[in-house]
Amino acid sequence: MNKKQLPEFLEAALKRATQPPPADDAAVERVLKRLSGPLPRQKASLWRLPGVLLDWQFAPAWPRVAALACCAALGFVIGIAGFDRRFDGGGAPFAVASNGDIGSIVFEPEALTGARP
Amino acid sequence: MDDSDEALMARIARGDERAFRALASRHLPVMLGLARRILGNAADAEDVAQEAMLRVWTHAPRWRPLALFRTWLTRVVVNLCLDRKRRAPWVALEAAGEIVDPALGAGENAERDERERLVAAAIGELPARQRAAIVLTYGDGMSNAQVAEILDTSVSAVETLLVRGKQNLRRALDSVIDKDE
Prior knowledge:
With 117 residues, chain A is mainly alpha-helical. Chain A has a domain at 85-117. Chain A is 49% helix and 0% strand. The N and C termini of chain A lie far apart (140 Å). Chain B is an all-alpha fold and 181 residues long. Chain B is 75% helix and 0% strand. Chain B contains nine helices and no strands. The A-B interface holds A 1-3, 6, 9-11, 13-25, 27-28, 30-32, 34-36, 39-48 and B 13, 15, 17, 20-21, 24-25, 28-30, 32-34, 36-37, 42, 45-46, 49-50, 53-54, 57-62, 64, 92-93, 95-96, 99, 115-116, 119-120, 123, 134-135, 138-140, 166, 169-170, 173, 176-177, 180-181.
C-alpha cells in the first residue's frame, strides 16, 4: 500500500472497524437481569409543578361552606354574649334599660326648680 | 396501545416498570453495541448500558420530547463512555470477525488483516471524543449534524474531531506505508 492508496484504505478500514457488532443476546440478557431488581427512586420533575398547581381545585365543597358558616355564627353569638355573663343578668347590654337606677336618672327632678319631667 | 418510545417514556414517567422493561429490551442491543465500540471492552459496555437505562428510569419524569428518544439515549450512552476514566483494551476486531477477500491470495489477506488490526489498534488509542465521533460517523452512518447534537458540540467541531482522528490514524499507519513503498 502506498500513500495514494492510504485515504481510500483508511475510509474502508474505518467503516469495517466501527461496524456495529452482531447483537450479543447473552449480554443483553445479563443487563436486563440486572435491571429487573428494585429500581431507584425517580427524580421529581419541577417543570410539572405549575401544571399540578393549576390542576388543583380550590373551590370548597358545600358541606364545608355550611360548616364554616355555622362556626362563624356560633363564634358571633359567643363573642356577643360571652361565656362569663348571663343573658338577663346585670351588665348585659340589652338589660341596661330595665335597671331601676336608670329610671331615677331619667326622671330625677330638676336641680333648681325641682320640677319633674 | 401506542408503544412508541415517547409513549413508553410517558408511562415510565408515571412509574410504569413494564413500560421501562419494554423500552430497555428495545434499545439495549444497539446501545450495548455502541458502548462496546467506543469503549472497546464488553464488560465496561454492559456497565454503561445498564447505567444509561437506569438514567432513563430516573430521569423519565423530567424528560421532555424535544428530540428523538433514540438521539437522547445515544447521547447518554456516549457521555457515559466519555466519562469513563479507565481506558480499556480495544477489541474491535474480535467483534468484527475475520474479513476474508477470496480474490486475494493468502499472503495478501494476511497483510490486509495486519493493516486492519493496526487501524483497530489506532482507533483504540485515539482520544475518547475523536473515537466517539469516528464510531458514530463511520459505524452508525450519522451526519455531522447528528454527531454534533449527540456530542453536544458544533458541526465544525465534529469536522475537526474527524480530521484530527484521521490524521492520528494516518500517523499510526506510516510504518506500514514505508514498509510497502
